[in-house]
Amino acid sequence: MNLLTADGHTLEAEWVAPVGAHRTAVLCHPHPQYGGTMRSIVISALFEALPKLGIACLRFNFRGVEGSEGSHTEGRDEPHDVVAAIDAATATAAAGGIDGPLALIGWSFGADIALGIDDRRIAAWVGIAPPLRFRPQTAYDIVARDPRPKLLVLAAHDEFRAPDEIAAETSGWEATRIEIVAGASHFFVGRTERVTTLVGEFTLQLAG
Prior knowledge:
Elements (H helix, E strand, L loop, with lengths): L1 E3 L5 E7 L6 E6 L12 H9 L5 E6 L17 H18 L6 E6 L1 H6 L7 E7 L8 H8 L5 E6 L7 H7 L6 E6 L10 H13 L4
Parallel strand pairs: 3-4, 3-5, 5-6, 6-7, 7-8
Antiparallel strand pairs: 1-2, 2-4
Helix pairs in contact: 1-6
């Protein structure tokens, strides 16, 4: 499927909805300039695991990645891409009779972009190893003050930002739970099952 952003770019995306789906997830991939795509390891693991739990999923390529139009803007215009993905996910879910809550889930750069999106259609946010560096602090502040639930899944041995730094930076966030994945690097090689379990359980607990 294709998405159309508010500033006129067509993005490639994939949608999967199991029979009886009752939740929706939008998945945001890691940094495009470091090889991140919608098929990166953690996003692929979620795209495979969540539908087995009854969660419909939409994953997409940010602008300038593979078949998506446009070019990378270091986080300035990528929020348009996420909103386009939410637009498509909510419309497609409604057309398929899926009326449950939507979780916005991102990994690394994708987590940073997701955690800066304030949209009433979002029931909850999940940030997986967010560096919290790719959006202005004011963008994070809006979500930080929001009472909707947030889950941060951090890697114990993250190469980009230590989990205690992220925990300290988000200590004042409302309705925020932190889970640290033991033995994991930023890329969660060998630890993706733990990530998908945490994200799946959190999404299934959303009211809706």
